[in-house]
Prior knowledge:
By secondary structure, the protein is α+β, with helices and mostly antiparallel strands. The protein has a single domain, classed as Class II aldolase/adducin N-terminal domain (L-fuculose-1-phosphate Aldolase, 3-Layer(aba) Sandwich), CATH 3.40.225. Helices cover about 35% and strands about 15% of the residues. It contains 7 helices and 9 strands. The chain has helices at about 5-15, 75-85, 95-100, 135-140, 165-185, 195-205, 225; strands spanning about 30-35, 35-40, 55-60, 65, 90-95, 105-110, 120-125, 150, 155-160. The chain has a 9-stranded mixed β-sheet, sandwiched between helices. The longest helix has 24 residues, at about 165-185. Zinc ion binds near residues 74, 94, 130 and 154. One of its GO terms (molecular function) is metal ion binding. Keywords: Lyase, Metal-binding. This is L-fuculose 1-phosphate aldolase.
Amino acid sequence: MRLRAEREAVVAHARRMAADGLAVGTSGNLSTRAGDLVAITPTGVPYDVLTAEDVVVVDLDGTPVEGRLRPSSEVPMHTAVYRGTDAGAVVHTHPVHATALSTLLDELPPIHYMVVLLGGPVRVAPYAPYGTEELARLGVEGLAGRSAVLLANHGATTYGDDLAQAYERGVLLEWLCRLYAQARALGEPRLLDAEQLERARVAFGGYGQGGGSAGGGSAGGGSANAGGAWGSR
Ligand SMILES: [Zn+2]
């Protein structure tokens, strides 16, 4: 079986999604890249019974290479993120707070300094039907300089160097959205300004927008060090 370790990582993270509030039923999908191949969740299989054999291997154009099931309907979005960024893994979810705010905002305001771990205030990409190349294109555009994007009236997508980091960023994004929603329910939240965000960025190791390679795709990605930092602060 090709990409066995990657397939097992997909299963391990998929099984956490319901408990972490990132997905309901079979919604959401995860993938991780190894060279020119991508291991991605199949469509329609409940995560609690998902096995490594069920995970599908596709190439960077989304063509199935190995697997007995059909890959996720969001293959175009996953492969577009791999082609357009330096992502090593992509996590797409439908968490309730992120999805609620995706119907209200054009950008998640900087309510907490940890948003710098996602590259800065997270954009909301315009609505497009699920599974389409249009949604994939709009999502990648929304990711410019960021490692997270909200998809209007749909959900959220994050990426990272590996599945652990992409998943952790998905959890962080949902937490930020829940925080903003709860603060807004009580009043008008005070937001961080550009200087405060920049100081947080420097404190986290100076990575972030403008700190990546000239390719433009890595600006939203942080180092492994920074990616693991948010849980401990
Ligand atoms: Zn979706």
